[in-house]
Amino acid sequence: MESASVSVLVNDNPTDEFKSMRGLRQGDPLTHFLFIIVAEGLVGLVRKAVKAKMLSGVKVGRNAVELCMLQFADDTLSLCEDSFRNLEGYSEGI
Length: 94
What we know:
Largest sheet: 2 strands, antiparallel
Mean pLDDT: 80
Structural class: alpha+beta
Strand content: 15-25%
Shape: elongated
Number of strands: 8
Number of helices: 2
Low-confidence stretches: none
Order of helices and strands: EEEEHEEEEH
Distance between the termini: 41 Å
Oligomer: single chain
Strand order of the largest sheet: 1-4
């Protein structure tokens, strides 16, 4: 079975085309489950970073609830306070 050619954008420049031999493709029903698994791992890392005081989220509302991440369907929005501490946490790979 021959696969379609794929190219990836890196800094708005396409790479050389290559053939995808294995794995999931767009529209594959397993992609939703893969996203959930990866998203859960990301949430776990963010919680760990917040607990270790390496990352602080944005405080909203009267009760100052801290938000670090919002997820809906297949979208993820990362929120953090604008501080050098947060930048250093990200650069260290949390």
